[in-house]
């Protein structure tokens, strides 16, 4: 008598059953192999870190080598971010003069490279006049206000503010134009000091953003600006300021040790104050962009940078930090020389 597992009697209880010796016993079908589970896409944090691991070394290399490679990089970032901005306001129903706006945006950055912030500002004025004339040729009169103001704001908000990254990287040239022939070497400013100043500025705002992200996730309780960005917290902002300020001072220490001639222009007390100001300005810049996205009802301005959104999402804090650092340095140099 053979026992066949799983065979039940009429009562429904499992019991022994007799199998005819001449009758073949069919085995149960083999357990199918588990279906291959598709790989999960990288999480937001993992994608963010991966993008940063590629972007940061590249940006640092471009800052160090300078030249036309730096100008080309700023132009590419500027045009991509400005185009994303115009897409935001297009989503609100406006019809910006995109081609004209992008053309003037590129011209403003280029003029800052070849000349000075004064001539870039003159070009800004000219761009407004040209945009108003160009609007006259459009058939729809009712959209004129939104079209002109939106296009011009894109030139100002992205291109004009970003042009200060060029002025800061080549700060020695700008300082010379404001120094009335006085020697800049006496205060420790050399032609390549802009490398230190640019990296210092970026380190403060980028690390402030990272600190705010992690501190907010860990300890965030009180909302910083709930109507604008519900995920930002006071604790996150404070954590960002601490890490960003520390990062600025770390860059100062690094350059003082390895390249002291580049960082000699900035004292430790100034480095502390400037890093603190840059962190606050960077947070404001982040909130401003969040305000624009909230109004346009979008999460990100684009998807070009995995985990980070669009280019405008990535440079929102530096957009305000670069001008702040540039004008603080102009004032600092003036005070040092007088």
- The residue ranges in which pLDDT falls below 50 over 5 or more consecutive positions are 1-27, 30-42
Count of DSSP helices?
11
| Integer average pLDDT | 87
Roughly what percent helix?
55-70%
Report the structural category.
Answer: mainly alpha
Main beta sheet: strand number and arrangement? 2 strands, antiparallel
**CA-based gyration radius:** 30 Å
Cα distance spanning the termini: 111 Å
**Number of self-contained structural domains:** 2
* Order of SSEs: HHHHHHHEEHHHH
List the defining traits of the structure above:
338 residues, mainly alpha, two-stranded antiparallel ribbon, disordered N terminus, globular, 2% strand
How would you explain this protein's 3D organization?
By secondary structure, this protein is mainly α. It has two domains: 57-169, no CATH class; 183-338, no CATH class. 68% of the residues lie in helices and 2% in strands. It has helices at 44-65, 67-91, 98-114, 117-136, 144-169, 171-178, 193-219, 234-258, 260-263, 268-296, 311-337, and strands at 223-225, 229-233. A two-stranded antiparallel ribbon has the order 1-2. Residues 1-27 and 30-42 have low confidence and may be disordered.
